[in-house]
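Incident log, structure service

09:12 report received: a user says their structure output differs between two submissions of the same chain.
09:20 pulled the input from the user's history:
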Amino acid sequence: MPHLFIGFSGIASGVGIFIIVWLVVCSRTAQFTAFAFDAPGENGRFEKLLPVYLRVAEVIIGLAAGSIVLLIGSSAFRTGGQLPWFFASPLFLLAFSIIYGILFMVFVIFDYEAYRHHPDSQSYTRLKYTKNQALGFSGLFCFCVGYAWLIITVTR
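09:34 re-ran on a clean worker, output below:
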C-alpha cells in the first residue's frame, strides 16, 4: 500500500473498517426503522446486560492502551529513542480501537438513557442502533487487525 505519510495505512484501515462494518450493519437492518433495548414485556432487561458490554469494551481499551504504552515505552531502550516507522500503522489501529471503544461506551449509555426516558417512543432509531453496532464491532476488529499487524511487523 502506498504511504502518503507515516501511519497512513493504519489510519486508512481504521476508517475503512468502521465504514465497512457500518455498511454491513445497515444492510442487515434495512427493514427496521427503530429498535427496543428491552425485549417486549421485559422492561429494564438491557440494564442487566449493559455492564457486560461495557466490560468487554473496557478490556479491549485496556489491552490496546497497555500495548501502545508498552511499545512506545520500549523505544526508550532503542538507539536514538525512536521506534521504526513501520510500527506506526498497527499503533494507529490500536488507537482507533480505543477511540471506537470509548465512543461505543458513551453512545450506548447515552442512547439507553434517552430510551429509558421515552420508552414508548421510537427513540432508539436505526441510525443510533447501527452507529452503536458499528462502533462496538469496529473497536473489536481494529484491535484484532492491529494486533495481527503488529505481530507480523515484529516477527518479520
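09:41 both user submissions now match this output. Likely a transient worker issue. Closing.
09:42 reviewer note: The mean pLDDT is 89. The first helix runs from residue 8 to 28.
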